Amino acid sequence: MIGDSMKIYVEGYGCTLNIADTNIIENSLKEFNFEITDNVEDADLVIINTCVVRLETENRMFARINYFKSLDKKVVVAGCLAKALKKKVENLADLLIMPREAHLSGEIIHEHFVEKNKKENTINLEEKLKYISPSLITPLPICEGCIGECSYCIVKVARGRLISYSREKIVKKAEELINSGTKCLLITAQDTACYGFDINDNLPNLINDLCSINGEFIMRIGMMHAKNVGDILDDLIEAYKDEKVAKLLHLPLQSGDDGVLKAMKRGYTVDEFISIVNEFRKKIEDLTFVTDIIVGFPTETEEAFENTLEVLRKIKPDYIHGAKYTSRKYTEAARMKQIDTKIRKRRSEILDKLRRELSYMNNKKYVGKKMKVLITEENKGITHNFKVVRFNEDADIGAFKEIKITDAKTFGLFGNL
């Protein structure tokens, strides 16, 4: 039944920022007393919060939209697909909700389906924060958009220019979440390093204020663009020394070849990138270093690919997010001559083998060490440097314990509390 009593099924995809938006969408619906159902068959209306970062992801989003339409459901498409590929999706969807409108979802749907008179909405992004509900691990957005010009990326089309939330409101929300039971904050954005650049503020200031909140908790700082870390590097490393900051650095390299980085418009050189990683490792004990690599970018020659492998062997990331390049509409790289898919696949397989070797090698060095761990579920937790660890003892979920590491595998640790 389309009306005040309609049942709504919500499905979300994508990065931590999108996970936060899905949570915000659900909570904004509750403000208008819509019933949220976990069963799509029972729903009168479906909201799918989409991701569009890769072609495979885009195809999956359209497959899900078509599936929901085949069930004869009203379908609302929210998120990055709605903004980045609006013309392609608007004929399929009954309504679109843009990434910066997540907190207005309840109002928009009520006006469109109940009042049948959609008004112009005044968008105050900081209003989003009030719709984030606490959980043991809670994503906390700090800004939207970015200042990058990467030649392959469609996400800026979807998320737009940088808009940072005020530090005071972020800290107030974080305090509320921690007082309500959150033990781990996922500080998230398209690029956390550029936080505050538009409002004369910066990420280290924000981290320091968050660390001053009373209570036992840990926060993981989300992905940072290396070109934006330079100006804040010393203060950022100092902020990372606080025990409430997870010792994890997520800094995408994307390519270990300067020519490819230039074509990607990443804004840094390989040497500059390595310098940042070395500074962190020198001053932050037990640092977990995570990076991203794209293989098969249009200008990536065999030599450039080998350069990437050589750099990875040198900097030895704990974990590598590897991805085959896929052409994205509206980007500069889409107009370049593309590399054969078989070459991309082969390079991806070589990268995958190396990333497994490096992850295992890094994990082995923790065997015999004692580490602080947050219990996140039965027999499982995350360490102070965000390694996944498993154990056999009983422990209260949400508690912080000490664990001695007894074994290591490729993508995780094992130990005894």
How does the SSE layout of this entry go?
Layout: E1 7-12, H1 16-31, E2 35-36, E3 45-50, H2 55-70, E4 74-79, H3 80-84, H4 86-89, E5 95-97, H5 105-114, E6 137-141, E7 143-144, H6 155-159, E8 163-164, H7 167-179, E9 184-188, H8 203-211, E10 218-221, H9 226-229, H10 233-240, E11 248-250, H11 258-264, H12 270-283, E12 288-295, H13 302-315, E13 319-324, H14 341-364, E14 370-377, E15 380-383, E16 388-390, E17 400-409, E18 412-416
Parallel strand pairs: 1-2, 1-3, 3-4, 4-5, 6-9, 9-10, 11-12, 12-13, 16-18
Antiparallel strand pairs: 7-8, 14-15, 14-17, 15-16, 17-18
Helix pairs in contact: 1-5, 7-8, 8-10, 13-14
Which descriptors apply to this entry?
18 strands, five-stranded parallel sheet, globular, 417 residues, five-stranded mixed barrel, 4 domains, Transcription Regulator spoIIAA
